[in-house]
Specification:
This protein is an alpha+beta fold and about 220 residues long. It has two domains: about 30 residues; about 150 residues, Sortase (Sortase, Chain: A, Beta Barrel). The strands form two sheets. An eight-stranded mixed beta barrel has the order 1-2-5-6-10-11-8-7. Strands 3-4 form a two-stranded antiparallel ribbon. The protein is globular.
Amino acid sequence: MSQPSKIQWHAHNQRRASLLLVLLASLVLVLGCQPIQAPAATPDSTPTPVEEPTAEPYQGLPPVSLRIPDLALELPVTNMGWVVTEANGQRTTEWIVPLDSIGWHVNSAGAGGAGNTILSGHQASGDALFAPLALGDIAAGQEIQLVDDQGQTFIYRVTEVSEPIPLVGATEEDNALAQTYVAPTTTPQLTLVTGWPDFTTTHRIFAVAEYVGPGE
């Protein structure tokens, strides 16, 4: 068999090159027709706001002293509890008011606390520390300073002194009115309670003071 001539070899290489160009062109065309995929959506990365915890209202600490600067009074305050008794065949509770100090109702708010801070005292027995309330010496507009057992002072201002409310022979309306003065509150308040008049106890009298703020 005779060897191919140079012309035949050159023509053969040209056909191979043409065929390769056709294949490459077809490949480019096929790839160009492929759909372009959009990038996958990412989840919303916006952070979820975190709610700040709500601070609990200040409950206050046990009071140990009550001052009324206008009257030059400084009275000791102690915790006061109650006993269960019977009245007219029914079980009830009775506060044990101390004779030589003012009694803090232990189920009421502490000094400067969010709620009604209730203090009771005698006006006709023992040291009669709340006689000024029964005599009308404690009046609206006066400042009251309440000191807790850590030495912090809280300032209140008297806004109301009630009329004497019957205790002996009290009606349901009388008792309901008296209860409004010692009912719980949502804001700091100070309530003073004693008997009336100053030589015996036939009525109750209340002084209400609004919270002003902490003292120095």
